[in-house]
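Technical note accompanying the year-one report. For the benefit of new consortium partners, we illustrate the data format agreed upon in the data management plan: each record pairs a sequence with a structure-token string. No post-processing was applied to the example shown here.
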Amino acid sequence: MGFVISDELLGTIVPIVVYWVYSGIYMCLGSLEKYRLHSKKDEDEKNLVSKQTVVKGVLLQQLLQAAIAILLFTVTGSDAEAAANQPSSLIVLVRQFVIAMLVMDTWQYFLHRYFHHNKFLYRHLHSQHHRLVVPYAFGALYNHPLEGLLMDTVGGALSFLLSGMSPRTSIFFFSFATIKTVDDHCGLLLPGNLFHIFFRNNSAYHDVHHQLYGSKYNFSQPFFVMWDSILGTYMSYSLEKRVEGGFEARPTKEFKDD
């Protein structure tokens, strides 16, 4: 009898592997100065935390997420097994993906915004993520463990439960969400990037939020800009070429005048 890995275990492990493989690709491309949103020098000098510390922080969060994911799959096991045995049409799968994306975006927008407006939570939790003034790919999940639990783990659990997706479908959804999150923090504007073509919420959009002038704007993550647009926290920007090469996302005139 062959060794079989359950969908639940794959749904837990695959997104973690995807995170490091995809961010590793971007780190290899980081030397492409003409596509960077910040210079390599700025990445080294402006960030307030070492890359070694970032790696340790991300691994800790992923360990906690994995433990909670396994617990979630265990608790919902009977329902999940029933759902997995039901054939799903493409329409059903698309509907589940869209619902999960909207749930995750909604949860993360309001919690993310609250982390910024509550001084205690910002100082003791969310400021850890903003030590990366110049974001890079494998720093995407560098958060305080409690913030990671509330924002990412709980948000992911709600997306899974409310969309009604099976553990097998979750493998693909959470891998997709992981890739999107890494891409938003990659610090590069590569030509032909499909995420930049189909999503207004991209690396330049999120880079604005990581700068001091944009810290109260562009809270939406990781997919759409819906809530920023509806609630007046959308900061428009223009992409300007830097003299030394690459691009810079600059706020448009109405925000410069604020």
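Partners are asked to follow this layout when depositing records. The chain is about 60% helix and 5% strand.
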